[in-house]
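Please, structure for the following, as C-alpha cells.
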Amino acid sequence: MACTRTISAALIAFWLASPLIAQDRSFVGEGSDTLMGVGSRYVAMGGTSVAIGNDIYSIYSNPAGLALIDGHQISISRQLNAELSPINFAGVAFSLPVLERVGIKTVIGFSYIPRLHFKASGQFSEDDFESVFLRYALPGISGDFDGTVISKTKDYRVALAFAPMDSDRWAVGFSLGMVDCATFVCGGNATSVEGYDMVITEATALTFNFGARYKILDNLTLAFSVKDVNTELDVSVKTTDADGTSETTFQTEFPTDVTFGMLWNYSDTLDISMDYQVMFGSYGSYDIDVQIIRLGAEKRYGNFAMRYGMIVPLTINSSKLPEIKLPFPVAPTLGVGWKRAGFNLDLAIYAHPLMSYHKNGIFPAADLSLSYNF
C-alpha cells in the first residue's frame, strides 16, 4: 500500500500543476471483470468455461475443473494490447496424493487475477457510459465528474478440487480469494469545479467460491459455479477537499455471480459449450442485475485447434443507474490453440465489450496464454 500512496501523491501533484489535463477525455478498462473472463482458450469460445474448463484457469470460472489436470500445471496470460496491466492471469496447480488411498484425486491451485484495472480522465456527465461504469465499479462516486480516476482490483486465490481417480464422471471444487482494491480519485463536480476533491480508497474482502460438474451422458456434461458468496468489502476512504482531510471506514456488499454451463462432446474432435451467467445482489447502495449467455465451439486437428464463440448480453442493469446497452447485439470471439510436449499456446481475438462501448464501435483485442504441464 505504501507504493500506492507514493504513486497517488505524485499523480496529485501532477494534476494540481496541470489543471487543463482534465479537458482531454480518456478511458481504459481491463481485467476479468470486463465480461471476458480469463484464459485465451475460453475467451476465444465466448468466455464459456464452467463446464468445459479442465486446466488452471478453472480456478477463476469453476474450481471443480482443476480436478481434470493431469500432473501439475503452470500458466500465464496477457491481453496483448493492454495498457494498464502486464498480465491478466498467473497460476499454478499441483496434484496431491493425500486421498489416493480412497480413490480420490486431489488438485490444489494458486492464482493471481487482475479483476479490474481502469483509468479515466476528463469531464464526464452522469449519462455518459464512462460515468455509469465508474459508478458500477465505485458506488458513491459523483455522476458529474471532472478529473482523474485510477483503480486496481486484484484477486489472489487458492483452490482445492476433488474427483474419482478412475473416472471423470464428477468433480467438485472450492476456492478462497483475497480481493484487494486500491482507487485514486482526483477531481470535482463537472458542472461546478471549485477547488478539487481527492479520494484514496483501499478495500479488501475474503471471497468464497465453489462449483461442480457432472457428466450425465457420455457426451454431455452439466456444471455450475457460484462466486463471491456472501462477500463484504472492508472499505477505508480518505478524502481531502477545501475543508481538510477526513477518513471513514465501512462495509459494503459484493454481488454474487452464479453461472450454469453445458458441454456437448459432439464428436472426438468437436466440443460445443454454453454458459448462462447471472449476477445479482447489492454493491454499495446499488442493486445489480446482469444476465449473459455465452456460446463457444472448439474443433481439434491433432495438436492444432480452432475456436469460435460469442457473448450475448441480455441485461446489464443497476438501480439508480441507466441501463448499459452495447453498440452491437453480440460480441464475437475466435482463436487458435497449439500443444506440443506439455506446452499449450493459445490465442484469442475478440471485440472487447467495455472498450467497444467507450469507442462507440468495435475495439479489437487479443489475449495470449502459455501453459506447461509437468
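The first strand starts at residue 26 and ends at 30. Confidence is low (pLDDT under 50) at residues 1-23, 190-195.
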